[in-house]
């Protein structure tokens, strides 16, 4: 709630919450059945809206396929990276091995290249 950092907005929100509480208490005292009906109606409307949003905002099948392919590649590369890591001998703490390790280039085979649209050129305006 970043907008509550300002003192005036904090007091406005606090006042609105206080007025809502007074309205709920007075409605409970005057007509408890009406309050329950009103709260049930609101809950029903929120549930319908929530269901509709979840139903129609699902990803398209092509996005699901891409996501599955990405997860599969990530799992494969993770398995490959961990197998190389576990097969390496224990490290020695001598100065010679440290300098040899620095000279060695780190193998980045655990990364997977995802092909993109390389052939398509961007249409840029020249000034």
Shape: elongated
Q: How many strands, which pairing sense, and closed or not: the largest β-sheet?
A: none
Unreliable stretches:
none
What's the average pLDDT? 78
Rg from C-alpha positions?
Answer: 30 Å
Specify the helix fraction band: 55-70%
Backbone structural class: mainly alpha
Summed up, the helix count is 4
| Percentage of residues in strands | under 5%
Total beta strands? 0
SSE ordering: HHHH
Give the N-terminus to C-terminus distance in angstroms. 44 Å
3D architecture notes:
Helices cover 67% and strands 0% of the residues. The chain has 127 residues and is mainly α. The two termini are 44 Å apart. The mean pLDDT is 78.
Topology:
Elements: H1 7-30, H2 32-56, H3 61-87, H4 95-103
Helix pairs in contact: 1-2
Summarize the entry for a quick read.
With 127 residues, this protein is mostly helical. It contains 4 helices and no strands.
What are the key terms here?
single chain, 127 residues, mainly alpha, 4 helices, elongated
């Amino acid at each position: 709630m970043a907008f509550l950092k300002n003192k005036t907005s904090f007091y406005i929100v606090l006042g609105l919450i206080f007025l809502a509480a007074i309205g709920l208490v007075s409605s409970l005292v005057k007509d408890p059945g009406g309050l329950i009906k009103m709260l049930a109606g609101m809950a029903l409307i929120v549930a319908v809206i929530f269901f509709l949003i979840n139903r129609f905002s699902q990803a398209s099948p092509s996005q699901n396929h891409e996501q599955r392919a990405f997860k599969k590649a990530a799992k494969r590369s993770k398995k490959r990276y961990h197998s190389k890591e576990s097969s390496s001998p224990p490290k020695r703490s001598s100065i010679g091995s440290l300098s040899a390790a620095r000279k060695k280039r780190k193998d980045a085979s655990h990364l997977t290249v995802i092909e993109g649209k390389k052939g398509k050129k961007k249409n840029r305006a020249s000034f």
